[in-house]
Write a structure and sequence with these properties.
It is built from 5 helices and 10 strands, in the order E-H-E-E-H-E-E-E-H-E-E-E-H-H-E. By secondary structure, it is an alpha+beta fold.
């Protein structure tokens, strides 16, 4: 009888060409499938909750696989972590029914984006936070952020390359805080939760918020860009290395 097993994993995106399997180089999917085949002794394709680009990290990515192997589900994380590249860790596993799909069963997703504002970037943060040389006005960023909250057509905030039946999405929460981290740097953390995201939607939104923090874009102007649905008129996306998939909600 086939068994359907879901797992939560984390990974350092700087080590991969993205999460989705491709021929250009190492990927998270390819690494997990290699490890699963070594353990279960048969090819094991996985389905992931979402695609992340090269340089984008995750602490709560979900994937599912099918097997008839009788390995106890509680041993799956230990077995995988013993053979996986150290840049990928499986945190937990549980059995699901055949209908469970990591992508389409999800009720929401949470991303966090980190920005280090400093004259000289901290070398210990270069892979996990975008460096901005100067200061960003948090109050202006929070004001502009309200334009994104709610159910809208986010066509203007979707990068080309991933067609979708609809560009309507609901942003449930968008919070921006600034705090000093353990490395002595001030980080701006932008956390955004939505029912789903379009391709590079988070990075495009963060790019607009960074403009707002520089006084180059207002809440009203963002609303006008939203209505115009024209990606070419919007600010460029923020760099990938500051982005992390925090949680997929089911």
């Amino acid at each position: 009888m086939p068994r359907y097993i879901a797992c939560i994993c984390s990974y350092d995106g700087a080590q991969f060409c993205g999460s989705q399997r491709q021929i250009n180089g190492p990927t998270v999917q390819g690494e997990i499938e290699r490890s699963l085949e070594a353990i279960l002794k048969h090819p094991v394709p996985i389905t992931m909750a979402g695609r992340t680009d090269a340089g984008v990290h995750a602490t709560g990515q979900c994937f599912r696989f099918t097997t008839e192997n009788q390995i106890p589900v509680e041993r799956v994380p230990l077995a995988l972590n013993s053979t996986l590249n150290k840049s990928v860790r499986v945190l937990r596993a549980w059995e699901v029914d055949e209908e469970f799909n990591p992508r389409f069963s999800a009720k929401g997703r949470v991303y966090r984006y980190c920005i280090e504002c400093a004259e000289v970037g901290n070398v210990l943060l270069r892979q996990i936070a975008a460096h901005f040389r100067g200061t960003l006005n948090i109050d202006k960023m929070n004001e502009a952020a309200q334009a994104f909250v709610g159910r809208h057509d986010f066509a203007a905030w979707q990068s080309a390359g991933s067609p979708t039946p609809t560009t309507i999405r609901e942003v449930r929460r968008l919070q921006i805080v600034q705090r000093r981290n353990v490395f002595g740097s001030d980080l701006i953390e932008i956390e955004i939760e939505a029912d789903a995201f379009l391709y590079q939607m988070v990075r495009n939104i963060v790019g607009a918020l960074m403009w707002a923090g520089q006084g180059k874009l207002t809440k009203n102007e963002i609303e006008s860009l939203m209505e115009g649905r024209d990606r070419t008129k919007c600010p460029p996306p923020a760099p990938p290395q500051g982005l992390c998939l925090i949680e997929v909600k089911y």
